[in-house]
Write a structure and sequence with these properties.
This protein is of the alpha/beta class. Helices cover 40% and strands 15% of the residues. It folds into three domains: 75 residues, Orthogonal Bundle (Arc Repressor Mutant, subunit A); 116 residues, Aspartate Aminotransferase, domain 1 (Alpha-Beta Complex); 224 residues, Type I PLP-dependent aspartate aminotransferase-like (Major domain) (Aspartate Aminotransferase, domain 2). Strands 4-11-10-9-8-5-6-7 form an eight-stranded mixed sheet, sandwiched between helices. Strands 12-13-16-15 form a four-stranded antiparallel sheet, covered by helices on one side. It is globular and about 70 Å long.
Length: 458
């Protein structure tokens, strides 16, 4: 057993030892109930300090992979429950198709720029001469660097924001690492971090973004390797970082120089807020992701990621062994859309339309006594008395929304649902009536308040 474990270790740090044991457990080579060698035996065989092995064991214990039974030693833990369903998969819910689906979080197709002319202008698509061509079209990289909120040391293009987050996590997060996120946070990010065995810690938000004092407390309590945040149009709340808040957060992080900052600017050019990045102050350790799905088209499947070479270099090299590069044909389309005046004007019109739709629905809900936020982007975060009752009630009215629970690292003080306000182009009053009826239980707590039955979207 000792030889099996030490033979699997290729990185003799605490993180590397924990990762090696985790791989053995996952592969079934260390079955549940297996008694592990003592810390001193492992340390002696590896030629490291017992403190290093103890730290690895603690990481594995926190992650539930092993358990300590006092003087009896440490054992591989038995699986207690089947793996939980992914948070992302919970957003659609089991409710049947409805006439007005506000659960999707996708942009309005009618507000996206038309790709027809862009496809014509890029020609026959002969943009690849070798499998080892640069992963980004040179002209596109130049345009992206002009738009970047800070000068990135390296920049590449990947297949969407989630692909970027997945690849960054694969480079910087290991089993048992502490990672800090906003609370609430984007469910797929939480899924990705859970998949690699990270310990996720949530920091609350206010109207200007992540709270600096709370971030400082968490960093003081946990040896975090990274902080993940959404600088604009936070999904689900719509909050955007103010320049002052970005400076405050950077000042906090300045005292923790080993913590990487990862920013997911998922809404991009349809954000009403100006681009703000901690990279302007912490550029040497900020990875910024810029997505074009909501602004230029989900099927482009493109996002740019830029930051320090220590992260982007290995990420780009590893990608050569998989997809290699993101379609240069699609990169050509994106370059055209970013430089064509007509496409640029259409994205600006979409940004204004989403702002109008958010404001209209948010105002109508406030008139009906409903608490909600929708400062930017396409989503609205609505407080409800009971999440499940709200969703069932809305389904009965022909409306689907996303449950709030999958967004929460730890429970908030109230239940919430996420509404894709960007898809509410008309019948605002009737939609608000239905949402308010679902949000608020009557004074007896026995059911939703009576409201007129909306029919305008059926």
């Amino acid at each position: 057993m000792l030889a099996l474990i030490t033979g699997a270790v290729d990185d003799r740090t605490a993180r590397g030892i924990a990762a090696a044991v985790s791989r053995l457990v996952t592969a079934g080579r260390l079955p549940a109930g297996t008694r592990l060698p003592t810390v001193r035996d492992v340390a002696r065989e590896l030629g490291v300090s017992p403190t290093t092995v103890s730290e690895a064991w603690r990481s594995l214990t926190r992650a539930g992979a092993i358990e300590t039974r006092g003087r009896s030693g440490s054992y591989v833990a038995a699986p207690v429950l089947p793996r939980q369903r992914l948070r992302y998969a919970q957003l659609g819910g089991p409710i049947a198709a409805v006439p007005l689906d506000l659960s999707t979080g996708v942009p309005d197709h009618d507000l996206l720029p038309d790709l027809t002319d862009a496809l014509k202008r890029i020609g026959d698509g002969r943009l690849t001469s070798s499998y080892l061509d640069a992963p980004v079209l040179p002209a596109l990289e130049a345009r992206l660097r002009e738009r970047w909120p800070f000068p990135p040391e390296r920049l590449t293009v990947v297949d969407g924001a989630l692909d970027a987050l997945d690849r960054v996590i694969g480079e910087v997060v290991r089993f048992g690492d502490h990672v800090i996120v906003e609370n609430p946070a984007f469910p797929p990010l939480l899924d990705l971090l859970q998949t690699v065995g990270a310990t996720v810690v949530g920091v609350p938000l206010d109207e200007a973004g992540m709270r600096p004092a709370a971030l400082r407390r968490v960093l003081g309590d946990y040896p975090a390797v990274a902080v993940f945040l959404q600088p604009r149009a936070h999904n689900p709340t719509g909050v955007s970082l103010s320049p002052a808040r970005a400076s405050e957060l950077a000042a906090v992080l300045d005292g923790f120089p080993d913590v990487l900052v990862v920013e997911d600017d998922h809404a991009g050019d349809i954000s009403s807020a100006p681009p703000v990045s901690l990279g302007a102050l912490l550029g040497e350790r900020t990875v910024h992701v810029a997505s074009f799905s909501k602004s230029h088209g989900p099927d482009l499947r493109l996002a740019a990621v830029g930051g320090p070479a220590s992260v982007l270099g290995p990420l780009t090299d590893r990608r050569l062994l998989g997809p290699g590069w993101s379609s240069r044909l699609l990169q050509g389309v994106l370059l055209d859309l970013l430089t064509d005046p007509g496409a640029t004007a259409q994205v600006a019109r979409a940004r204004d339309a989403y702002a109008d739709r958010r404001a209209a629905l948010l105002g109508a809900l406030r008139e009906r006594g409903v608490t909600a936020t929708a400062a930017d982007g396409i989503n609205l975060w609505m407080a409800v008395d009971d999440q499940q009752i709200a969703m069932v009630t809305l389904a009965a009215h022909g409306i689907a929304v996303s449950p709030g629970a999958p967004f929460c690292v730890t429970p908030l003080d109230r239940d919430h649902v996420r509404v894709t306000a960007g898809l509410v182009a008309g019948n605002v009053g009737e939609v608000a009536d239905a949402l308010a009826a679902a949000a608020q239980l009557d004074s007896r707590g026995s059911g939703p308040r009576a409201r007129p039955h909306p029919r305008g979207w059926r």
